[in-house]
Design a protein that fits this description.
The protein is mostly helical. The chain has one domain: Outer membrane efflux proteins (OEP) (Up-down Bundle), CATH 1.20.1600.10. Helix content is 67%, strand content 2%. The chain has helices spanning 10-31, 48-51, 74-142, 148-182, 189-193, and strands spanning 54-55, 60-61. It has a two-stranded antiparallel ribbon. Helix 1 (10-31) runs antiparallel to helix 3 and helix 3 runs antiparallel to helix 4.
């Protein structure tokens, strides 16, 4: 199973969108520093709005009515930009943590799955041996060689082994559900073909 499956997990998708939103906030905060004008006119040359933006030596803002200039809100804009950057850093850390959690949960579920397979196999062998013991005890009782207490003891051992086997199988099925959830909903060739790759940040 490819690790790309984990990008389908709801928690990973949610943190990815939060990170994308944080990046968008940085873009918006940076945009607040720039006047809202057209840089070029027809033919790709400097536009008239850009030409009128500066006066004199080109070192001061020109207060044309049609140009939106945030020159007096620079402190607020800087604060907004710093906040957006801090929020992005937090979202990056949260995204990394979510990815690590996803891999840990899958790793734990797969390890438990291997353990349950081995336990069920061993318990099944114990059930088979207990069933043979019941069969032999019954034969000895019918032949008059043993008493019925030996049959009852063998049956009790068999029933206990069967109950343990059922408990293990139940835990194994629960583990499969956990693994399915950890993988973000399971896996097959069709779902992986439509799995979206992580978007660039």
């Amino acid at each position: 199973m490819p690790s790309d499956l984990l990008f389908r997990r709801p928690d990973v998708v949610a943190t990815e969108h939060n990170l994308i939103a944080a990046n968008a906030n940085i873009g918006a905060a940076r945009a607040a520093f720039f006047p809202s004008i057209s840089l070029t006119g027809s033919g790709g040359v400097a536009g008239s709005q850009l030409s009128r933006l500066f006066t004199g030596a080109g070192t001061t803002w020109s207060f044309e009515p049609e140009v939106s200039i945030p020159i007096f809100t620079a402190g607020q804009n800087q604060g907004n930009l710093d906040l957006a950057k801090a929020q992005k850093t937090i979202q990056v850390a949260q995204y990394e943590k979510t990815i690590q959690t996803a891999f840990r949960e899958v790793s734990d579920a797969l390890a438990a799955r291997t353990t349950y397979v081995d336990q069920v196999r061993a318990q099944q062998q114990l059930v088979d041996a207990a069933a043979d013991s019941v069969r032999l005890s019954t034969m000895l009782f019918k032949a008059g060689v043993s008493n019925y207490l030996a049959v009852l003891t063998a049956q009790q051992t068999l029933y206990s082994a069967q109950q343990t086997l059922l408990t293990l199988k139940q835990a194994q099925l629960a583990n499969l559900v956990t693994l399915y959830k950890a993988l973000g909903g399971g896996w097959n060739e069709r779902t992986i073909a439509t799995t979206s790759a992580p978007r660039p940040l």
